[in-house]
Structures are given as structure tokens and as C-alpha cells.
Amino acid sequence: MNVVPKEFIRVSVEDLTNLTRAIYLKVGMSEEDATIITELLVHTDLRGVFSHGTRQTFTYATHVIEGNMNPRPVQKVVQESPTTVVIDGDGGLGHLPCYMGTKVAIAKAKEFGLGAVTTRNHHHFGSAGKYVHMIIKEGCAGFSVSSHVFNVEAANKDVCHVGGGSPLSFGFPYKEQPPLVVDMASNMLPGTDELKKSYPAAFFKSLGLGASCAALGKILAGVTDLYYRDAIKWPASNQGSFILAINIENFLPMDLFLREMDAYTEFAHQCLPMPGQDRPLLPGNLEHEYEKEWREIGIPVGPEHQKSLIRIADTVGVKTPW
After folding, report:
1. Helix (H) or strand (E) holding 255
2. Are the C-beta atoms of 126 and 56 separated by less than 8 Å?
3. Is residue 283 classed as helix, strand or coil in its secondary structure?
4. By C-alpha distance, which of 37, 76, 75 is closest to 57?
5. Tens digit of pLDDT per residue, the chain (322 long)?
6. What residue spans define the domains of the chain?
7. Which H or E element spans position 300?
């Protein structure tokens, strides 16, 4: 899904922004919330992560229409220290408390060296890379992860299922070279029994990543099954997150760090490409190129992406620009 579609139409950032924002306004979100969510989703499309961009609008808006998600949440800080904060999302979309929490984490990192946030009581937070990009834009290194309440019964399921498919992202600020940003799901291979027998190490590593995501984005965030069964009134509100911002200057002079990151990236670009690839790129390099190019010429929107936006736009009475 996260490859450039072979068939597509180009939609300008302005048109896609206006369409997406109008849909969220139609389902009852505030102007501020609709703007924040739209900005995060369009930025995700600009990086080619289509699975977690505006294509999700159909699902998100439908949850609001069906009464599963709070269209007007009020995010609340429920616990805070000099370097940490816990935010309740009030049953809304996860992008909102995570956006708020990331800004707080950045401010704390700049003042104290580190800033960390957990969020809970909300729906999907999208791609983990959204928040890492916010962090590196402010000259910090970042990490973000999400997890959720597991609805799968353990009986008759192998242990890989407890890892879920949680997203995680690491990112580092940059100067001349494109950024190093890892933005991925914790499960990396289709979970067939044959593959698990042939490549057990790969699945144990995926399980380790998924379990760590659950420890941070579910358990540490307070997204426990008991808590959600007894306290949550919005059915789609089943997720949490952990987001960390690191002030580079508290460890190394910023200019030195940026020079070394550039040198490391340049070294990588002198290597041979991976088999089947035409260039030796680090994670995040290609997405950086997409964003620069597509801001100018428009985002490639494939047929299924178009259909999902047309469907929800028709439902709420908004015209698409194509």
C-alpha cells in the first residue's frame, strides 16, 4: 500500500487539505481540531505513507457518524512532572492528544534535556512518524510508539499475536543531507506458519518490537483492559501512545551532531544499493524526496484512495476536487 500507485491522479496539497478539512468539519469537529488532523494526514501522504494519511478519513469520520468516537474531545493533562506528562484524549482521535503531547515533550526537552508523554483514552494516532517529524523539526531527536487494547483471545493463537501490529518511529535532526527517520510497523512479515518455521529469528525480533510497543504505548500509558472495560464510554477509544523528545545539545554540540549525521548519510549513499533497489538510501530519505517534489506537483492519489474519499465526501455532502 505504501508505494506510489501505478495509476493515480495528482491532487494538489491545497485541494486535498480543503477536502479533508471540510469532511471533518461536516461530522462536527471544531475548526482547530479539523485543521490539526488534516495537516497531519496530508503530511503523511506527502511522505508516501498512504496507509495512514487521508485515506483513513473514511474510517475516522465514520466512527464519529456512528457515535463511536468523540467529535469534540477536550484533551486534559492528568499528571505532570518537569520532564513528563500524561494526557487524556477524551474519546477523540489520537492525533489530537499526541499532537498536543509532542509539543509539550519538545518544550520540556528544550528546558530539561528530555521530554516524554503518554496519552490514553483515544482512537488511532496514525503513523508514528508524524510526531517524530514534529520533534526533529525543532532540532531534537525523537521516538514515538502506539499500542492498543487487544481483542484477540489468546486461545489457539501463537505468541506472535501478543505483539500486535504496533507502529514505531525513530528520527534524528539533519542539516544538508535528508533526514534519518524510521517509520514502521513492528510486524514485518506475513505471519504464515511456513515462514515462521523458516525464519524464526525474524518473527522473534518482530515480537520483541511489538511487545515493547505494548509495554510503552499500552501498559505504561494506562491502556489496560480493565480500565477500558470499566471507564471508557467511546467504543473506538482503545489506544495509547508514548512519545519521547531528546535535546541533542544536552549530549553533544548541535553543529557537531549535524555534521556527523551528514557524514554518516554520505557514507551510506556511497554503498551499493540493496538487491532490487536502484539507490543506497537510508530510511526516510525517499520520503523526504517525495515531500519536496509532491508539494510542487501534487500528491499521487490512487483509485482506492480516491474511492474512499469520494465515499465519505458523498456521505457528508462535500464535493471532491476531481
Report:
1. helix 254-269
2. yes
3. coil
4. 37
5. 589 999 999 999 999 999 999 999 999 999 999 999 999 999 999 999 999 999 999 999 999 999 999 999 999 999 999 999 999 999 999 999 999 999 999 999 999 999 999 999 999 999 999 999 999 999 999 999 999 887 656 556 788 888 777 999 999 999 999 999 999 998 877 778 888 888 889 888 999 999 999 999 999 999 876 555 555 689 899 999 999 999 999 999 999 999 999 999 999 999 999 999 999 999 999 999 999 999 999 999 999 999 999 999 999 999 999 9
6. 9-316
7. strand 299-301
Overall fold of domain 9-316 = Ribosomal Protein S8; Chain: A, domain 1 (3.30.1370)
Q: Contact at 8 Å (CB) between 318 and 15?
A: no
Q: Are strands 9-11 and 239-247 parallel, antiparallel or unpaired?
A: unpaired
Distance CA(95)–CA(264), nearest Å, equals 32
Q: State the Cα–Cα distance between residues 146 and 127, nearest whole angstrom.
A: 9
> Which residue in 288, 290, 245, 218 sits closest to 144, CA to CA?
245
Written as nine digits, the cell of 15 is 485541494
- List C-alpha distances in Å: 35 to 28, 198, 265: 13, 47, 34
SS3 211: helix
Q: C-alpha grid cell for residue 136?
A: 526533529
d(CA 116, CA 99) in angstroms, rounded, equals 13
User: What are the angstrom distances between the C-alpha of 60 and each of 70, 168, 237, 313?
Assistant: 11, 21, 12, 12
Q: Which three cell numbers stand for residue 252?
A: 553533544
Residue 319 C-alpha cell reads as 464535493
Contact 93, 37 (CB under 8 A): yes
Report residue 113: phi and psi, to 5°. Answer: 105, -35
**Residue 134 main-chain phi, psi, to 5 deg:** -60, -40
Q: Residue 52 gets which letter from DSSP?
A: G
